[in-house]
Structure to design on (911 residues):
């Protein structure tokens, strides 16, 4: 396959970036998208040019490192698939593909396609946990959890923290990310004592961190590689409302 | 331990290595195996809560072991500095583990017990692990499940609301707790959230995108690390009272592996070069069910869970080089070789056996797919017997993943699979307290060698990582700190200056080579060499060939590597180059260890040592020891020095493993 890439190149956080064009003549359809970039980078190095920087690690769709907007869509055209699991068989010979970093005020560009997503860690620090110290846990079977709640909690807990939801949102909102954690812990008995304070603390933190507000666009759930449903946001809103009614306060 | 720092007194030249003094664990109490951990916990010294915040612990790596240890020591009130090279501690490679975590809860009432988990693990490790450590692992497994449930880890549950379990290879009980095919992810998120809570509380100082490049050993103790900021390239020093490495395994020495691309041996190797012994480097685990290589550009391999072998049947065409599509090969022309060779266990033989059998079929030119490097894993019979719906419910996400990567639909066409490197049992030598041979340096998780012997059983890696992180290190590290705080040192200490200068010198040397080959081209060549000669089957001839080639490959690397850009900013080629440089040295130690171990055991198969029917032949008389290697290139003789730790089996008596 012959592929033309137009890739966002930006030397550092302060530099002005621009799209650069690269032509590849020997792309194979069984290559992953990142393997295609590996091949391009090998060529760039041998030509004494700076290779394209991008975050990646497990290449199995689970670590949440990889993050590229491909032809305008975070993680590209295939549903429920991270960039690293996207393969070139989904493109045609002669295609031109645009590759850009996440675009969101809360995720500033570090270099090329690499952005700073540490704001997500800060949201978790605001309450995305159960406050239990090591050693103080009761016997695991002491509290049964009905299977439906356990399964739903698991579905929400599959969030990989990649940030595609924020990148897809016209407001740059992190509501889907925050709501996935609130849903995961809020559905389990272990998460009940802190359920309301968790919701308002995490929400307050995301507002503080340059993320936008949610206007129910739904683009986040469309691009989520783990299929976190939009309904999680309703749960978050429900818990926030509950907190308001009971007068719970953020930590 | 200090005697280990001395020159070995008895040195017998064996050509490629020297023999040093024996080594022993002196930390496990002398009580019956079941009492040792409680005895040790009682004898371990404590630190007054008011004194804890005056002590600094550095913990490198934020996977299950490192994340759990940092959170727990933070909760206890120590000043913890945690480091990871990823952009967030949540991305450590523990996250990719699929299958589950073992625990001897015996919720099934199927005869499980701490003793049985201990027994299975010692036997599964082919009698090359230390009984004390394995028994502690089995004991602590109970607390791990409790802790994770309390954190909100969404384990699979039954309609009763109680925890579900499943079976894994090498055991006859159902003791594996799981969260669909993403158990590692859920456990890591648990440890990560505990860690983030401590970061918010101010007990843990987090340093993401920061790579450890050297260990600082001052006045005989590990006192800090030298790091490079991946963002700015700045070289920094971090000083502390104790250093804990939880930096994972070294599977990426093979270039193609199921490890994450960033997984590396650098922290462990730097510690080795500073005096920590490296144990059993040749014990590597090759997982039989991975998606085969599809081309030269291949960057990594993907594992398909071992659970697939519960229902999939493994076969190859009987005819050599049969290139017909699998569905046109009639039943009688297929060789279901695992069922034929191992009628008792069939497709569920342990990992090492299944991997070697696949290799043998491919060596006999019966392999399928590109290059003949693959075998079929066929679900046609299972779909016929259970119906497509039932197969989908059990394996749906794995089938989807397979289709996403290969483009083939496994409901219609058999999967193609091939073994790939997956885990490394070897690692830095530690005693019962997880202390390395450098005072003040502890090692946890896959980075140490301690619990799995020559072969790890499925669902035991997550157990060990969390056992070390939540329960063992938080007991043994304070015992060490009870002697502290140690005399403060600052950046003008000669040991600090020397480590910083060495780090900067290495980076300058890499950048100034400006040669003609990329880092990846060297890594691929190294990986192929190690895979060919120190992979699934090893021979004296092959290992010697690799040992003859490696020094020149290393020399070529330092002379001819090409890195674009500078050291003072984000430079991913430079990061990779530093890691490959260390893999090049480790590869040589692996081959030396494999050459010296004249027996076959677990993941280490020497073709010279097999039974008449091709099974591994252990030599307990001569090799029932841990091979702990001292770095020797900078010492008289210039060769690695072998220290043997004899293994005693008082509770589980060594027997030949048979799965026929």
């Amino acid at each position: 396959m012959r592929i033309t890439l137009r890739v966002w190149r930006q030397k550092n956080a302060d530099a002005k970036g621009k799209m650069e064009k690269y032509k590849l003549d020997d792309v194979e359809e069984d290559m992953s998208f990142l393997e295609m970039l590996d091949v391009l980078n090998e060529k760039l190095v041998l030509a004494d040019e700076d290779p394209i920087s991008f975050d990646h690690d497990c290449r199995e769709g689970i670590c949440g490192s990889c993050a590229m907007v491909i032809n305008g869509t975070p993680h590209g055209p295939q549903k429920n698939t991270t960039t690293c699991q996207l393969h070139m068989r989904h493109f045609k010979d002669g295609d031109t593909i645009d590759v850009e970093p996440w675009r969101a005020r809360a995720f500033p560009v570090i270099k090329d396609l690499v952005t700073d997503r540490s704001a997500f860690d800060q949201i978790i620090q605001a309450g995305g946990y159960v406050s239990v110290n090591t050693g103080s846990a009761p016997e695991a079977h002491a509290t049964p959890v009905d299977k439906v709640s356990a399964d739903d909690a698991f579905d929400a807990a599959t969030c990989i923290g990649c940030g595609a939801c924020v990148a897809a949102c016209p407001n740059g909102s992190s509501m889907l990310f925050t709501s996935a954690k609130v849903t995961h812990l809020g559905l389990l008995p272990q998460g009940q004592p802190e359920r309301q304070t968790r919701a308002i603390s995490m929400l307050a933190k995301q507002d503080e961190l340059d993320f936008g507000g949610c206007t129910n666009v739904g683009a986040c759930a469309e691009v989520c590689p783990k299929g976190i449903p939009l309904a999680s946001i309703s749960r978050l809103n429900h818990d926030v409302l509950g907190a308001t009614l009971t007068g719970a306060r953020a930590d | 331990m200090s005697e280990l720092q001395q020159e070995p007194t008895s040195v017998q030249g064996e050509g490629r290595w020297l023999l040093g003094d024996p080594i022993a664990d002196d930390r496990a109490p002398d009580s019956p195996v079941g009492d040792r951990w409680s005895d040790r916990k009682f004898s371990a010294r404590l630190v007054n809560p008011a004194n804890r915040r005056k002590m600094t612990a550095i913990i490198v790596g934020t996977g299950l072991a490192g994340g759990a240890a940092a959170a727990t020591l933070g909760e206890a009130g120590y000043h913890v500095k945690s480091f990871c090279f990823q952009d967030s501690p949540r991305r450590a490679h523990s996250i990719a583990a699929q299958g589950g975590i073992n625990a001897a809860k015996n919720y099934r009432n199927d005869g499980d017990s701490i003793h049985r988990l201990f027994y299975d693990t010692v036997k599964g490790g082919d009698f090359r692990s230390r009984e004390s450590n394995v028994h502690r692992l089995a004991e602590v497994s109970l607390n791990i499940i409790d802790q994770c449930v309390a954190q909100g880890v969404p384990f699979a549950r039954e309609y009763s609301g109680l925890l579900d379990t499943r079976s894994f290879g090498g055991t006859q009980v159902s003791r594996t707790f799981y969260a669909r095919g993403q158990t590692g992810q859920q456990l890591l998120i648990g440890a990560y959230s505990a860690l983030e809570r401590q970061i918010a509380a101010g007990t843990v100082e987090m340093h993401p995108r920061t790579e450890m490049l050297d260990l600082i050993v001052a006045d005989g103790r590990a006192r800090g690390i030298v790091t490079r900021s991946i963002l700015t390239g700045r070289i920094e020093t971090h000083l502390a009272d104790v250093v804990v490495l939880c930096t994972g395994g070294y599977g990426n020495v093979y270039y193609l592996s199921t490890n994450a691309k960033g997984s590396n041996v650098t922290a462990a190797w730097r510690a080795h070069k500073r005096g920590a012994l490296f144990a059993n480097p040749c014990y590597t685990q090759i997982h039989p069910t991975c998606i085969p290589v599809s081309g030269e550009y291949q960057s990594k391999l993907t594992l398909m869970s071992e659970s697939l072998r519960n229902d999939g049947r493994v076969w190859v065409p009987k005819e050599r080089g049969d290139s017909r599509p699998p569905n046109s090969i009639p039943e009688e022309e297929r060789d279901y070789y695992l069922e034929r060779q191992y009628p008792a266990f069939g497709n569920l033989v342990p990992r090492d056996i299944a991997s070697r059998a696949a290799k043998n079929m491919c060596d006999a030119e019966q392999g399928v797919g590109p290059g003949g490097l693959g075998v079929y894993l066929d679900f046609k019979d299972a779909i016929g017997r259970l119906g497509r719906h039932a197969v989908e419910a059990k394996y749906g996400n794995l089938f989807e993943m397979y289709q996403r990567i290969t483009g083939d639909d496994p409901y219609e066409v058999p999967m193609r699979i091939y073994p790939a490197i997956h885990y490394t049992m070897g690692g830095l030598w530690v005693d019962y307290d997880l202390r390395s041979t450098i005072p003040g340096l502890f090692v946890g998780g896959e980075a140490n060698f301690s619990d799995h012997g020559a072969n790890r059983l499925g669902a035991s890696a997550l157990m060990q990582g969390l056992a070390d992180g939540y329960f063992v290190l938080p007991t043994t590290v304070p015992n060490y700190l009870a002697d502290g705080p140690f005399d403060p040192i600052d950046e003008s200490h000669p040991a600090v200056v020397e480590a910083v200068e060495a780090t900067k010198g290495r980076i300058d040397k890499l950048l100034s080579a400006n040669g003609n080959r990329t880092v990846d081209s060297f890594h691929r060549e190294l990986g192929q060499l190690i895979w060919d000669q120190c992979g699934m089957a090893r021979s004296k001839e092959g290992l010697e060939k690799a040992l003859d080639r490696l020094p020149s490959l290393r020399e070529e690397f330092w002379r001819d590597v090409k890195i674009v850009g500078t050291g003072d900013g984000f430079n991913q080629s430079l990061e990779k180059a530093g890691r490959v440089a260390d893999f090049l040295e480790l590869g040589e130690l692996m081959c030396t260890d494999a050459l010296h171990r004249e027996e076959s055991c677990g993941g280490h198969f020497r073709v010279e040592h097999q039974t008449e029917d091709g099974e591994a032949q252990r030599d307990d008389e001569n090799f029932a020891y841990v091979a702990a290697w001292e770095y020797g290139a900078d010492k008289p003789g210039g060769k690695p020095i072998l220290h043997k730790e004899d293994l005693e089996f008082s509770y589980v008596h060594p027997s030949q493993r048979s799965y026929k």
Summary: Chain B is about 35% helix and 15% strand.
